[in-house]
Amino acid sequence: MTGYGFWNVAAMEWVKLRSLRSAGWALLGGLAATVALGAVAGYNTRNAAGDPTSNVLAGVALGQVITGVLGVLAMTGEYSSGLIRVTFAAVPRRPLVLAAKALVWGAAFLVWGELAVFASFLLGIALLRAAVPHPSLGDPAVLRAVLTSGGYLALTGLTGLGIGVLLRHSAAAVAVLVGGLFVLPVLVGAAGHSGGKFLPELIAGNSLAAVKPVQGFTWSPWLELGIVALYPLMLLLAGGWLLDRRDA
Amino acid sequence: MISVRALTKRYGGTLAVDDLTFDVAAGTVTGFLGPNGSGKSTTMRLVMGLDAPDSGLALIDGASYRSLRWPLRSVGAILEARAFHPGRSAAAHLTALAAASGIPRRRVREVLSVVELADVADRRAGTFSLGMAQRLGIAAALLGDPGVLLLDEPVNGLDPAGVRWIRALLRSLAAEGRTVFVSSHLISEMALSADRLIVIDGGRLLADTTVAGLAARGGGSLEDGFFALTGSSRSGDASGRV
Questions:
Q1: Which of A4, A15, A81 is the closest to B70 by Cβ?
Q2: Is the model more confident about A39 or about A197?
């Protein structure tokens, strides 16, 4: 026995995740709300020349708040209760705790996100009017739109985790998350910059979910998904570095 | 055993722990006595590797806390009451800690029985009274059957029966050869539960003595002995330190 390692810490984080009833209810309710938005958007689609796939993925706008906020709370909840000091007493190599949280929550968010987008798609398409073309998952662009949208939801959850570890306070971290998702695009748009293709919330709607190209978003959706992934990656690396240097 | 060597910690301009040196030996209950804000909790956080000292060392059986292979199997601690997620059950809280420490699941039920929380093991810990919360903290400290225990104000919130129970528990843990280090600002409690005493104020060591030794300084009264020490340190504050 050489001592604790990553998988011990991942097992701890998995027990923590499973045993939080509040997170379970938030995920369940969030799933229903996300899919319901897609269903409504599908039913209301009238433009035969539009992009019904993109429309039925409308719930992603809500879903990203669910995963993002839960990601924040996965970290800040430990700080507000004082549990973080118990966690770090059990696992003094703190970046391991963050890596384990990222793996366990990231996997849960990915499963949840893909479930949400596939359910949204299937239900939304079933509710499309007869006059509107019915996209199929057999079309590679449509499958890509659904898959990357689910991935986007998972990445936004990890962005929340990264903001949470940097700020440590729930309210501040949620404010930064929501501001970054919704306010930043407005500011960038108002300034007339063509920076939209670097902003996750705009990438999600205009590149990932889009089957028909949107002006200003000429890069490949997979490249755009990579850009989205850079946000949690940088935040988590900075957070892991800081964890070892700050008093708990 | 716990060894603290020239430990110093500053928060901004405040010197919380000031060149502190002492040992806590195995096999006895050592009380950590000092007024509120004297640096007891900070010292314990430094020993646990939760805060980093500006200088000096804190060692557990000769090793720094961060280098321990299975920390919870070496050191059990209560640093604050209610250090758990209020939405999680007592059993789940302990199961998570057991998972990180390679401790078998059955040990969770064992320690819950020891602290008499077996009946409420699956209730949300947020609904616990302060006394129950302290018991859950003690269960977490005992989980890894550690040789060293650090307990910061463990009797806070306990009813008289609970206080008596924990006193007996500390005695029996020390009798098994463990190192038991208990902080309190309650002099009377220390008189009953501790053998040795480390007394600090303003982050500085005032005395490393026995309960009887401190009482002797106060002409037989532990309380007078304590105030003789801390009173002189306070006047020393005004004249001596920057």
A1: A4
A2: A39
In this complex, which of B69, B79, B96 lies closest to A85 when CB atoms are compared? Answer: B79
Structure tokens at A64: 């990203």
Q: Which residues, in sequence order, are CB contacts of B114 under 8 Å at separation 6+?
A: B139, B142
Quick one: closest CA in B to A21, which residue? B87
B41 near B194, Cβ under 8 Å?
A: no
Chain A residues within an 8 Å CB radius of B70? 1, 3-4
- Cα–Cα distance for residue pair B91/A221, rounded to 1 Å: 45
Nearest CA in chain B to A77: B85
Q: Phi and psi (nearest 5°) for B203?
A: 80, 0
Amino acid at B4: V
DSSP A48: T
CB contact under 8 A, A90 and B48: no
Q: A98 near A239, Cβ under 8 Å?
A: yes
Q: Which residues of A touch B69 (CB under 8 A)?
A: 1-4
Using one digit for the tens of pLDDT, what is the confidence trace for A27-62? 999 999 999 999 999 999 999 889 999 999 999 999
Question: Reduced to 3 states, what is the DSSP secondary structure of residue A196?
Answer: helix
Contact B69 A1 (CB under 8 A): yes
CA atoms within 13 A on the CB side of A101: 30
Where residue B203 falls (left for φ over 0; alpha for ψ -120 to 50; beta otherwise) is left
SS (H, E, C) B62-74: CECHHHCCCHHHH
Mean pLDDT of B119-129: 96
Query: What is the 8-class DSSP label of residue A79?
Result: H
Count, residues in chain B: 242
Report whether A106 contacts A159 (CB < 8 A): no
What domains, with CATH codes, occur in chain B?
A: 2-80+147-240 (3.40.50.300)
- Contacts of residue A223, defined as CB under 8 A and 6 or more positions apart, other chains included, come to none
**Higher pLDDT, residue B86 or A188:** B86
> Which residue do the tokens 């002797």 mark?
B216
* Inter-CA distances, B10 with B86, B204, B207, Å: 32, 13, 22
Least trusted range by pLDDT, from A15-24, B14-23, B147-156, B218-227: B218-227
Taking only the tens place, the pLDDT of each residue in A114-168 is: 999 999 999 999 999 999 999 999 999 999 999 999 999 999 999 999 999 999 9
